[in-house]
TrEMBL record:
It comes from the Bacteria. Pfam families: ABC2_membrane (PF01061). InterPro entries: ABC2_TM, ABC2_TM_bact-type. Residues 1-33 are annotated as: Disordered. The keyword Membrane applies. It is found in: Cell inner membrane; Cell membrane. Residues 64-306 form the ABC transmembrane type-2 domain. Signal peptide: none annotated. This is Transport permease protein.
Length: 314
């Protein structure tokens, strides 16, 4: 009998192969096989561990801890309110300008944190990505959940501020808020996964993302009314591109949810109809949803095709 035909020794383990049907029925799978973009749903326990890890690492040695979720937006609001509301007198032409301003700030803060954290999620967890097997999709999704944890205190402050100006929850406000959150998270996660895949190969991407967040703050109606933009470039291709910006759509949805129907604003619109944004109450929400969905699909496809190269690139 030749060596090639000899049976394996009794003390040698059988060669590794694909899992049998019995093993598959028990939930076993071969190493490296996962559920792809559905991993955040299938690996919820690991996702919770990553979220806890990110929160602990971020506030390790910090005296204020989660209070930074209040400090940063508070400083932003004060600076913008004084510079634009007082010095440029935008508060005189915009009823309840404080609520208008802060409802846009919370959108940009959530966009910036999800986008930035997701972009750095692979490179920031390089020891885990390169040394052990973990579904790579968990890292950007855990970054999004951490950003939502920081978003909740800001949202509570916004709700309290809106209530002080006479705002009351309504079905219109709830629908606008839900649409805004859906478009924002889907769009930002698509961008975040795309940027995370590119950042693993080219570290310049994270610097570009920081620049993009700063530009987005001024290219969305956060600090000024959208009617001002319409007066300046209305009827041109730039006006339509401005309106199709998903962040513009989300910010306007937040304005509808928390600012538009407060008594002071309703009275101001009765005296000056130009305060009403075009397309209210929900504007181009359908376009924002389509663009967000397309961005999410693109980001997911690019991320999935890049996962096997992450360990080598890091």
């Amino acid at each position: 009998m030749t060596a090639a035909a000899q049976p394996p020794a009794a003390d040698q383990p059988p060669a590794a192969g694909p899992p049998s049907r019995a093993e598959q029925a028990q939930g076993w799978r071969a190493p490296g096989q996962d559920a792809g973009w559905l991993n955040p749903l299938h690996e919820r326990f690991l996702l919770r561990l990553l979220v806890r890890k990110e929160l602990r690492v971020r506030y390790r040695g910090s005296m204020l801890g989660m209070l930074w979720s209040y400090v940063k937006p508070a400083v932003q609001f004060i600076v913008f309110y004084i510079a634009l509301g007082v010095f440029l007198e935008l508060n005189k032409g915009t009823p309840a300008y404080a609520v208008y301003l802060f409802s846009g700030i919370v959108v940009i803060n959530l966009f910036g944190e999800v986008f930035g954290n997701a972009t750095r999620s692979i490179t920031g967890n390089a020891p885990l990505v390169s040394k052990i097997y973990l579904p790579s999709q968990l890292f950007p999704w855990s970054s999004m959940i951490v950003a939502l944890v920081h978003f909740v205190p800001q949202l509570l402050v916004l709700v309290v501020g809106a209530l002080l100006f006479g705002w009351l929850p309504s079905p219109t406000a709830l629908v606008a808020f839900g649409l805004g959150m859906l478009i924002l998270l889907v769009f930002t996660m698509g961008l975040g996964m795309l940027a995370a895949a590119l950042n693993a190969a080219f570290r310049d991407v994270e610097n570009f993302v920081d620049l993009l967040v700063m530009v987005a703050t001024w290219l969305s109606p956060v600090l000024y009314r959208i009617t001002m933009v319409q007066e300046a470039i209305g009827g041109t291709i730039w006006w339509w591109l401005y309106q199709l910006n998903p962040l513009t759509i989300v910010v306007e949805l937040f304005h509808v949810a928390f600012w538009r129907y407060s008594p002071e604003v309703v009275e101001g619109v009765a005296q000056d109809p130009s305060l009403m944004a075009p397309g209210e109450p929900f504007g181009l929400w359908w376009a924002g949803l389509l663009i967000a969905g397309a961005t999410f699909v693109l980001g997911t496809v690019v991320f999935e095709r890049s996962t096997r190269r992450f360990a080598q690139e890091l």
